[in-house]
Design a protein that fits this description.
395 residues, alpha/beta, Aspartate Aminotransferase, domain 2, Aspartate Aminotransferase, domain 1, seven-stranded mixed beta sheet, 14 strands, globular
Length: 395
């Protein structure tokens, strides 16, 4: 009777109806003789989204965190040195995982609101003449702070210093939404998840692996970290036959087939452009709200998939989120870690359009007002509307 509950968190994202319908099927035989053709097509088309020709893509029945763990366990040895940076909750968690798996982390601490420090990375790589750093880790899109990082600049730092380290990228909230070029940027391992730009429920960890990373896996053999569930070797052996080493999430795979068809039909460049256009409308709205500002510390850092927004002084962001949920049937993302109570997040990735975002901005304005913010009603919506009217294609 009260209409839909509106979802504007940075994942899970809204699921297109054709994708939802594709998953609404009876259980099927994952050992059926026709299953390999289906799986082969999925893995081939995932490479198109990742923009890779060689290498492999693995699909794990897990969240992106499982794919993170697989990337580390299969290509590095405990005790090896890696270069990482920490500037939000998810880059923080990646550092935590690396340390718990026994890696020697050379850590760059960065102000929350900025991203991967490519210049600092370059200095550290240039100084590492013995090439003790075996991998460089980059969070392309920090979901907690709404910050993007320049992966091409990190690749340039590696190339300019002649450093052979592998390049790991967390693309959980970026791949299938914003520009990502696995081959062009020389990325060796790239992690994503089904619940973001791929417009599915959570449950698939997606990992792109370059030939260089596959060779690293072969080189460590049985001497590397202990691994079983996330073993490359097991996945390769069964994937080569069109199957998986354990029961796959068949319904999610059927949804993924439709999602990939939609992405490829539209073209990845158009997907990237749409996210940028929609995100800019949100950024203009935030600029129009008195006392509010983005957590990202400049336009060069602003994410096209999620905006983290500081509330005005004296306004608890948790009250904004609560009012949005209970009064206006709208879910916003909470502030994580040190941003708890200080910021809320609007996710603008996956299946959405300008009218949906104008609704989100309207709900945010009402919730902000209820929480005590002194903003002009309609100011942000009007700014977004003007942008969308001027930039949205007619077809």
């Amino acid at each position: 009777m009260n209409g839909n509950q509106h979802l504007f968190i940075p994942g899970p994202t809204n699921i297109p109806e054709p994708v939802r319908q594709a998953m609404n099927i009876p259980m099927e035989d994952m050992r059926a003789p026709d299953f390999p053709d289906f799986v082969s097509g999925l893995l081939t088309d995932l490479k198109k989204v990742y923009r890779m020709e060689a290498g492999r893509v693995f699909l794990f029945p897990s969240s992106g965190t499982g794919a993170w763990e697989s990337a580390i366990q299969n290509t590095l040895n405990s005790g090896e040195k890696v270069l990482m940076s920490r500037f939000g909750q998810f880059s923080l968690l990646w550092v935590d995982m690396a340390e718990r798996l026994g890696l020697d982390v050379d850590l760059c601490e960065v102000e929350w609101g900025k991203g991967v420090p490519a210049d600092d990375y370059k200095s550290k790589l240039a100084a590492d003449t013995s090439h003790s750093i075996k991998a460089v880790f980059c969070t392309q899109n920090e979901t907690a702070t709404g910050v993007k990082s320049d992966i091409a600049a990190v690749r340039a730092a590696l190339d300019e210093t002649g450093h052979p380290a592998m390049l790991f990228v967390d693309g959980v909230s970026s791949i299938a939404s914003v520009e990502f070029e696995m081959d062009k940027w020389g990325v060796d391992l790239a992690v994503s998840g089904s619940q973001k730009g791929f417009m599915l429920p959570a449950g698939l960890g997606i990992l792109g692996v370059s030939d260089k990373a596959l060779e690293a896996n072969k080189a460590i053999g049985n001497s590397g970290m202990n691994r079983c569930y996330f073993s490359f070797e097991d996945m390769i052996k069964l994937n080569d036959t069109g199957y998986f080493p354990y029961t796959p999430a068949t319904q999610l795979l059927r949804g993924l087939r439709v999602s990939l068809d939609m992405l490829i039909e539209v073209g990845m460049e158009n997907v990237w452009e749409r996210h940028n256009r929609l995100a800019e409308g949100v950024r203009l709205a935030v600029a129009a709200w008195d006392g509010c500002e983005l957590v990202s510390r400049g336009p060069e850092w602003a994410s096209d998939t999620v905006s983290a927004i500081y509330t005005p002084d004296g306004v608890d962001a948790r009250d904004v989120i609560s009012a949005g949920f209970y009064k206006y049937n709208t879910s916003f993302g909470t502030g994580l870690n040190k941003l708890m109570g200080k910021a809320f997040r609007i996710g603008h990735l996956g299946s959405l359009n300008p009218v949906m975002l104008c609704g989100a901005l309207s709900a945010a304005e009402m919730a902000l007002t209820d929480a005590g913010a002194k903003i002009e009603p309609g100011s942000g919506v009007a700014a977004a509307q003007a942008h969308y009217c001027a930039t949205t294609p007619s077809k």
